[in-house]
Amino acid sequence: MIYSMTGYGKAVALYQDRKICVEVRSLNGKAMDLSTRIAPQFKGHEMQIRTLLNTRLERGKVDFALWVEQNEKAETPSVNVAVMQGYAEQLRAASEVSGIALPQNLMEVLLRMPEVISRKEIYEVGDEEWAVTLDAVNKAIDELLSFRKQEGEALYAKFIANIGNIRSLLASVEPYEKERVEKIRTRIVEALEKNIAVDYDRNRLEQELIYYIEKLDVNEEKQRLTNHLSYFVETMDGAIGQGKKLGFIAQEMGREINTLGSKSNHAEMQNIVVRMKDELEQIKEQVLNVM
User: Is 201 exposed, middle or buried (0-12, 13-18, 19+ CB in 10 A)?
Assistant: First the structure.
């Protein structure tokens, strides 16, 4: 089974007058590349969160966010009347002494003074709230992993189709391969008879032709490519987290297809090789997204 590295998960937990929101998303990456945005009150638990993400997600470019939303009443800042009144008295006294009139928008000025508007300070997270938060983090990761699994199933189906197409194309090489040998033989004999016009040792010619044709033989490349195709499917059906290995196998498949093309010496065979390369390129593009 294969998993994609692309995924998204979100979870929300309620605790007292607060709503704890967790969001995690991932894209493909060669290793674990983790970026976190965590509410200040949970900074003390950041290492635990990071360890959990690294353990459960393994690979990919991962963005994690944890924030807290409070209800409207809890979010409403409070006016410190005593502090504001103190500022007002000082401003009046300063106005009398300096002779400078008080501003017409005195209330607006007072509300901008330090500590007149007090907001709720960052609170300390207790064990109970942390347990609720940790559960939300795990639920968001579960949702992301479910997303990765669905994407992996789609990738699996696509790879199977690509592999099947390469197998079919490889099988279609055989008739052209036999035809190619006869064409090579005929072309060489005709060249000798028409252009050189001398007697030649036919037995020696046959020996040279056999040597030449053997150098163009593609049976080994076909066999190795067939083995790589089977190994690719076996690896997909094995343990999770084989993305890098699948990439290596795809590279080996590419080598055999390239050698097949360089040895083909036949227009139709080269056309088939081009189509196989197209199928392989699709595999290489998508295998980068496999866990």
Answer: exposed
